[in-house]
Write a structure and sequence with these properties.
261 residues, alpha+beta, Phosphorylase Kinase, domain 1, Transferase(Phosphotransferase), domain 1, 2 domains, five-stranded antiparallel beta sheet, two-stranded antiparallel sheet, 7 helices, 11 strands, 42% helix, 18% strand, binds adenosine-5'-triphosphate, binds magnesium ion
Length: 261
């Protein structure tokens, strides 16, 4: 025979189980269950990460999206002192990351990689943060990194009133811009010991104070086995852009030679 007290406790537990099941069913229907994604950006875990940023006072609120690529979406957010921030949210729903494994293998800083896209995406965000920090601390012209939590990277907003500065691609350019771009590549290599590996007119802002480089997700350590290959590609890519704009430029081979000898 069960005592009344025990019966009561059992009933409570059964109630809880039923409630839990109902909640799960409902949340799955809402698209809000574990591992479900409401839209391509805000799955449950990403929402929790953004709430965490709010609770810890790093951000006050998030405004609209300012950019979206294949693997991430960037939002304008506002910090507690009214300062503008950028949240770069790496998409967990994309499968493109699997292709990125080769960039991480061979980088000693990220040797313990588990399988699974979510983990890979988080490692990727951490990698971008680490690269950005290394560059910022070496005095490269880039946004100040604030923090990275899971797939969400927080950095200073580069722009005005929630509008990012124009990209180099969208701007008038002159010989000074070319020299500045090449000198950023050189400083990245010599001072920050980083090769950007995606250096292009689409990953450079043109601000009133000069060029600012961003999107360090693909960047690699200058000691990486393929670093020179990527360095060459960066120099050739940006040279091509300035040539297309009608400028007379230095032969990329001479710059590479000067930089790596
Ligand atoms: N710190 C920032 N401040 C303001 N806007 C930013 C910042 N970082 C990125 N953006 C905006 O977001 C866009 C995409 O950023 P980023 O290149 O880092 O993402 P991505 O996913 O690599 O995109 P893509 O695949 O197109 O290269 C930029 O073109 C820019 O408009
Ligand atoms: Mg980019």
């Amino acid at each position: 025979m069960l005592t009344d007290e025990l019966q009561g406790r059992l009933a409570k537990r059964i109630d809880l189980r039923i409630l839990e099941k109902e909640r799960k069913k409902k949340s799955e229907k809402d698209g809000f269950g574990k591992n479900k994604t409401i839209d391509e950006v805000f799955d449950k875990s990403t929402m929790m990460t953004v709430s965490g940023l709010k609770n810890s006072g790093i951000i006050s609120y998030v405004n609209g999206a300012v950019g979206s690529g294949k693997e991430s979406k960037t939002y304008w957010a506002v910090g507690p002192s009214g300062n503008d921030l950028a949240l770069k949210i790496y998409l967990v729903s994309t499968s493109n990351f699997k292709k990125r494994h080769p960039y991480l293998l061979g980088d000693q800083r990220f040797s313990k990689i588990r399988k699974g896209t979510r983990h890979l995406v988080e490692i990727w965000a951490q990698k971008e943060f680490a690269n950005l920090k290394q560059c910022y601390e070496a005095g490269i012209s880039c946004a100040r990194p604030i923090t990275v939590i899971k797939n969400v990277l927080v950095l200073d907003f580069v722009g005005k009133n929630g509008v990012p500065y124009p990209l180099l691609n969208e701007s008038e350019v002159d010989y000074g811009d070319y020299q500045e771009a090449i000198s950023i590549i050189e400083d990245l290599y010599r001072k920050a010991r980083i090769v950007h590996a995606d250096f292009s007119e689409y990953n450079i802002f043109k601000t009133e104070k000069g060029l600012m480089i961003f999107d360090f997700g693909s960047s690699i350590d200058a000691r990486h086995a393929n670093a020179k290959e990527f360095l060459e590609r960066d120099i050739k890519n940006i040279t091509k852009f300035f040539v297309k704009r009608g400028l007379t430029v230095t032969n990329p081979a001479d710059i590479i030679e000067r930089l790596t000898k």
